[in-house]
Amino acid sequence: MRIGSNNSIISRLNESSRTLSRALERLSSGNRLIRFADDPASASAVVRLTASLRGRRAENLALNQTQGLVQITKSALELQTEILQKMRELTIQASNETLTSANRKQISDQVVSLSIELDRIAKDANFNGINLIDQRSEVFS
User: Fold this and answer.
1) What is the pLDDT of residue 29?
2) Region class of 117: left (phi > 0), else alpha (psi between -120 and 50), else beta
3) Distance CA 47, CA 72 (A)
4) 97 and 78, same structural domain?
5) Range of the domain at 124
6) What are the b/e assignments for 37-46, b being 16+ CB within 10 Å?
């Protein structure tokens, strides 16, 4: 019995055991690539695709936030448009010569209250702390 041949056999047995272990790892996980050492070219592709995926996720988040900003702005502007149309109708109605001064006063009070609501909408239309409509905002200065 030679000692050198036993070391050689043990070395081959250890290598076979490692190879078998890697093969079982791949089979059990369902992945072709477990470690970067298994396939450097595929590992490089995985790194590139992972970076690309993260970039796409960030783009998607930015687009969703922009969509939210646009929807809030659109809603606020639609409300303001309705108020301005109502104010126009009231102004035309007030120009009717058949109205009494009391009627005109009521119409004027409605216009003032609509004007206050118009300002409130402009001040309250915010997205993440950014005022979207009020031009006095420091963001647009």
Assistant:
1) 66
2) alpha
3) 38
4) yes
5) 32-140
6) eeeeeeeeee
